[in-house]
Amino acid sequence: GYWTEEGGTLTDSSPSFGRINLNAKKLTLYSEIPNELFTDSLISLEQFMNESYPEAMSWFEDVAFTSGNGVGQPLGFLNAPAAVSVVKEVGQAAATILWENIVKAYSRMLPSSIGRAVWVCHIDTFPELATMALSVGTGGSAVWIGNGDGQGAPPMTILGRPVVFTEKVSTVGTVGDINFVDFGYYLIGDRQVMQSETSTHFKFGNDKTAMRVIERVDGQPWIQSAITPQTGSNTLSPFVKIATRA
Length: 246
Known about the structure:
The chain is an alpha+beta fold. The protein has 4 helices and 11 strands, in the order βααβαβαββββββββ. The chain has a 6-stranded mixed β-sheet with strand order 2-11-8-3-7-6. A 3-stranded antiparallel β-sheet has the order 1-10-9. Strands 4-5 form a two-stranded antiparallel ribbon. The longest helix has 23 residues, at 45-67.
């Protein structure tokens, strides 16, 4: 932007524009079910499948949106070109999490995204988070779980932002086991919503019912590189992860 005198000629800001292409990728489930299951099951197998198959599709979507490599599948936020990694502390032991890791990850979040960002952590990180301490002189105290009585539920926020535990990110000690993410910078395009079909004819000679579920979707981060701030030397991003501690 340019400060302009009253009545002065406006200076062309000459912004550069890019283009993000969301190309539909096909996600499928296919099963051949013996017809005896339909007739002998104590529960409605059809109802069970109508509930469980969409749940399975959503699970595989989440995996792709998290760690997909972008080849025939969505590009996950862990592989975002704009992602930044926070290096481990000097002398930090393998597979550990220090309060300093968390604080430094928070500091690399794009400031305008802090109010939307969430922590996405592998469930394997819980023991380290629960015992994480802040060293003060020769002593220290627990940071995340402060009362230590073990009776209440753990706080589901870190530095005021929600924590989501999952098994879909990297395991403890490897890059991406703890992430600070603003999902507002992740694009998802549904080209074909989930469609389920069954056929009793395709495997008629085997007395089976064929079932398939298909959807076409894509997802990828829309910001293509980390942002250099107006002042300061550390790049900022809506996708922050803690690097490997090995």
